[in-house]
Amino acid sequence: xxxxxxxxxxxxxxxxxxxxxxxxxxxxxxxxxxxxxxxxxxxxxxxxxxxxxxxxxxxxxxxxxxxxxxxxxxxxxxxxxxxxxxxxxxxxxxxxxxxxxxxxxxxxxxxxxxxxxxxxxxxxxxxxxxxxxxxxxxxxxxxxxxxxxxxxxxxxxxxxxxxxxxxxxxxxxxxxxxxxxxxxxxxxxxxxxxxxxxxxxxxxxxxxxxxxxxxxxxxxxxxxxxxxxxxxxxxxxxxxxxxxxxxxxxxxxxxxxxxxxxxxxxxxxxxx
Length: 272
Fold this sequence. Notes:
This protein has helices at residues 4-18, 38-45, 143-151, 157-162, 175-181, 195-214, and strands spanning 23-28, 49-50, 54-56, 59-65, 68-73, 78-83, 95-99, 104-109, 114-119, 254-258, 261-265. The protein is elongated and about 60 Å long. Helix 1 (4-18) packs across helix 6 (195-214) and helix 5 (175-181) packs across helix 6. The strands form three sheets. Strands 2, 3, 4, 5 and 9 form a five-stranded antiparallel beta sheet that branches. The mean pLDDT is 96. The chain folds into two domains: 4-125, MutM-like, N-terminal (N-terminal domain of MutM-like DNA repair proteins), CATH 3.20.190.10; 143-265, Helicase, Ruva Protein, domain 3, CATH 1.10.8.50. It is of the alpha+beta class. It has six helices and eleven strands.
C-alpha cells in the first residue's frame, strides 16, 4: 500500500509534468471507483487545466481549474504511470487522463482505489478526506502539536499512528522502523509514554518518512514514470526482518500480533 513517501513523490512528479496543461479527455473503466458517472467525469474535466497537484496522507489532490479537484487514493496499491505520445499504453487500466499535448497518465489499481471529482466549494465536506488528521510531515506540525495529538489517545500507540483520523500518511510499512527508532514497543499504551518518548517518536516519524521520500519511496511501488522506489528491504532496520539480528543490540527480531496487524520488534530495544 502506498504511504506518505510514495504519494509525496508522485505529487512532486505530477506537478512537474502536468501543471498548466489542458485536459482533453477522462476515461473511467471501473465506475465503482468514481463518485460520478464516467460520462459526467469526462464532460466536467474536459477543457479544464491541471493545477499544482499536492498530497495529504494517502490522497492526491489534482486541481482541475477552474472550480474542481480530482481526488485520488491508490488503495492497496496501483500503477499510476505517465504516458507520452510516442510511448506504449499499459495493457490494462481503470482510469485514464489525456492532455492536449498528447501526454497523460493511467491508473491500474491492484485491488481497489478511488477517483473522486469534487467541486472546490464542497472539498471541505468530502467524506473520505475531511476526517484526515494533519499530514505526518506537515511543516506546521510542531513537536508540541504532535505531543498534544498523541496525548489525546488512550489505546496502544501503533493503532493510533495508523489511524488516518489522527495523523495521516503512516501505514504498516514504515511504522515498524518508526517505533523502533524511537525505542517504543507497538503495544505501549499512550498514557504510559513520557514526553521524551513522544519527542523521540516525532523525530523518528520525520527521519524515516523523510529518508524514504529522498530515496523515491518503497521499492515495490512505482513512481509516475514507472520506476520502482529506491527504499529497499536493506533500508528497513526491523521491519519485515523476523529472525534476523537487531542492528543495534544483536537480539533476535520478532514478529508479533498487534491487534489486526503484525509488528516487527526488537524485544531488547523496545521493552513492553
